[in-house]
Amino acid sequence: MAASGSVSPLLISDFSELEKGGVRYAPTEPVLQTFTLPIELNKPISAESELELVFIFAPTRDVTIILDDIGITSAI
Predict the structure, then answer these.
(1) What is the per-residue pLDDT across 17-71, written as a single tens digit (0 to 9) for each?
(2) Residues 26-40: b if buried by 16+ CB within 10 A, e if exposed
(3) What is residue 8's DSSP assignment?
(4) What DSSP element (H or E) covers 29?
(5) What Å distances lie between residue 54 and 2, 6, 10, 43, 57, CA to CA?
(6) What is the distance between the alpha carbons of residues 45 and 73, in angstroms, rounded to a whole number?
(7) What is residue 35's predicted lDDT score, i.e. its pLDDT?
(8) How confident is the model at residue 1, as a pLDDT?
(9) Which residue has the higher pLDDT, 57 or 10?
(10) CA atoms within 13 A on the CB side of 16
(11) Cα(22)–Cα(18) distance, integer angstroms
(12) Beta bridge pairs of residue 28
């Protein structure tokens, strides 16, 4: 099962007035987003079961992906 979604572009920022000496700031900031991906299990699991999730990213350009706070809930 593959999921896709729209990813927002980076925010353009200008912190050049804060740059002094060797301190430089990136011209962009990441846009943190929440995605919900449906998954199907091929067998029931219990709270003691081990579950392995594999995420495969195939970007079409040079990107940085920040992956954090992964949660799993039952069907609502």
Answers:
(1) 777 888 777 777 777 888 787 877 777 777 787 878 888 888 888 877 888 888 8
(2) eeeeeeeeeeeeeee
(3) P
(4) strand 28-29
(5) 12, 20, 26, 17, 10
(6) 13
(7) 79
(8) 44
(9) 57
(10) 3
(11) 11
(12) 12
What tokens does 61 get?
């350009």
Buried b (16+ CB within 10 A) or exposed e, 45-69: eeeeeeeeeeeeeeeeeeeeeeeee
Total number of residues shown for the chain: 76
Instruction: Please name the amino acid found at residue 48.
Output: E
Amino acid code (one letter) for 23: V
Rounded distance between C-alpha atoms, residue 33 and residue 38, angstroms: 16
User: Amino acid identity, residue 4?
Assistant: S
- How far is the CA of 30 from the CAs of 22, 34, 46, 58, in angstroms? 22, 13, 36, 19
Look up tokens 């900031």; give the residue. Answer: 29
